[in-house]
Design brief:
Elements (H helix, E strand, L loop, with lengths): L2 H14 L2 E2 L7 E3 L5 H10 L3 E9 L11 E8 L6 E7 L5 E3 L8 H12 L2 E3 L29 E2 L5 E2 L1 H7 L34
Parallel strand pairs: 2-5, 6-7
Antiparallel strand pairs: 1-2, 3-4, 4-5, 8-9
Catalytic activity: a quinone + NADH + 5 H(+)(in) = a quinol + NAD(+) + 4 H(+)(out)
Enzyme class: translocase
Membrane topology: Peripheral membrane protein
Length: about 200
Amino acid sequence: MTASHARDIAPLLNTLGLEPDGNSTEPTALVTPERLLEVAGELKRQGFMLLDTVGLDYLKYPVPYPARFCVLHNVYHPEDHRRLFLRVYVPQSGELPSLYPVWRSANYLEREVYDLLGVVFEGHPDLRKVLTPDDMEGHPLRKDFPTGETPTLFRDGRFLDPAAFRAGLNGQNSGLTGWRGALRRGDAGQPLPPVMPEGGAK
């Protein structure tokens, strides 16, 4: 964190009883899971809103961290433009309190972190996958997730074949979605128009 950032958020951190995270270039505070809801509630009372929530996997980082996973909550004050990141290290249980009771915007943000990293948010009303197929096992943003290609059958009948997908990237009209004949649902036999003419704009 830069010296100017530290000065800007020092009064706020003092009010919240938090320590700055010296390992970050952005204004960041370390929060324990036990205090997360309390801190979030006070920030909301002061006018902050939740903009984003992301998860990090430190498994292959060159320097050790207190835990393998952490979650960063990005909060912002729309009137005075203060921004603060709340860094919460995920305990061995893999669970953190959900911020949904404080900010409804946490709904899809936490679902994404759950889907891609496997962090469970206790108290979330609908913690389901939001990006990956229902039958996919594992969490693809974990550093130990096996990479490779797997044909995928989606719940709605869409089939994605990796080879067809790659082949489709070379042309405008085939293979991009995995639908047979490059059709999307509702297109009833009409091929998709190209996004841009072959060879670029004319």
